[in-house]
Each structure stands twice: as C-alpha cells, then as structure tokens.
Design a protein that fits this description.
The chain has 159 residues and is an alpha+beta fold. It has two domains: 1-44; 46-148, Cyclin A, domain 1 (Orthogonal Bundle), CATH 1.10.472. The chain is built from five helices and six strands; from the N terminus they run βββββααβααα. A three-stranded antiparallel beta sheet has the order 1-2-3, with no helix packed on it. A hairpin with a 5-residue loop joins β1 and β2 (24-31). The mean pLDDT is 87.
C-alpha cells in the first residue's frame, strides 16, 4: 500500500479490526518513510447496478458520490462518520439485494432519504428540498410535518 502523504511504498499495518458484520476490515497503517499514519478499508467488491438518471443516461454507481451528497446534507450536523458509512453500506446492501442490473436514480434517492431520516431530521429536510425540488414554503412545511409525525408501530402478527 502506497503512503498517501509521501507516496512511499513501505507501509506497516499497526492495527486491524473488522466491523460488527465482519464484511469490512479497517487497517491502521504507518509509513516507514515519513512516519505518518493513515487508515484503509477493505471490503468485498461486488458488481453494483448501473444508475439510470431521469434523462435516461446511465452511469456507474459511485460510493463516494453517494457519500458526498449525504455529507452535504449532514454538514454541520452532529452525526459521526461511522454512522454515515454504515448508512451508505445499508444502501449498497439494498441495491445488491434488488438483484437488478440497473436502478433508477429516483429509487436510489428514496433510499438516501430513508437513511437520512434515520440519521438526522434536519439533513433529511435539506436533502428532500433539493431532491424533490421544493418551490415554496408549503412544501417545506409538509416535509417538516412528515418528519414530526410519529411513526406507526407495527403490530406483531399472530401465529
């Protein structure tokens, strides 16, 4: 692994940990040349579906782009990087579970909104205002009411 600071080829693994699900390995590394430390993540690379945009064009799924859009909505909000990473991972798991070769950007946007709603209500409103292209205050008011509304508890099914 090359050092991101000095591009030196000599790095050592200092610490290795798996996440709770065991599907991501986090490694702390130290560069032998410049002595700086950095973190790398290893995860299984699976074939993600293509994203079909509203205009019909297709693009490859990009984890960094998805994470960046969520981080923009979460800017200056009290949400940890680990929570964001877990939310992005849940979205990816849902995309893979669909088993489809292509997914609409609208479906992906709805998945992001669900995760943001779980993480932070203000970030959810921010994202929704852009994603749904709010045009007036009434649309903001409706979205806020939707967030404030208590969720209905599911009744257990009788056997």
């Amino acid at each position: 692994m090359k050092c991101p600071y000095c591009a030196g080829p000599n790095t050592q693994v200092i610490d290795t940990r798996e996440n709770e699900d065991g599907d991501i390995v986090r490694r702390r590394r130290r560069c032998v040349d410049c002595d700086k430390r950095f973190t790398t993540y290893e995860r299984v690379e699976l074939k993600m579906p293509l994203v079909v945009k509203k205009n019909g064009s297709r693009s490859e799924y990009d984890r960094e782009k998805l994470e960046a859009s969520m981080l923009l909505a979460l800017r200056k909000r009290p949400v940890t990087a680990e929570s964001v990473d877990a939310a992005v991972t849940r979205i990816e798991e849902k995309l893979l579970a669909l088993g489809e070769r292509e997914v609409g950007s609208d479906k992906l946007g709805e998945m992001v909104m669900r995760e943001l709603r779980r993480l932070d209500k203000v970030a959810y409103i921010r994202f929704a205002s852009v994603y749904r292209a709010f045009e007036d205050v009434d649309e903001f008011r409706d979205a806020i009411r939707e967030v404030k509304k208590p969720r209905v508890a599911r009744r257990p099914r009788s056997v």
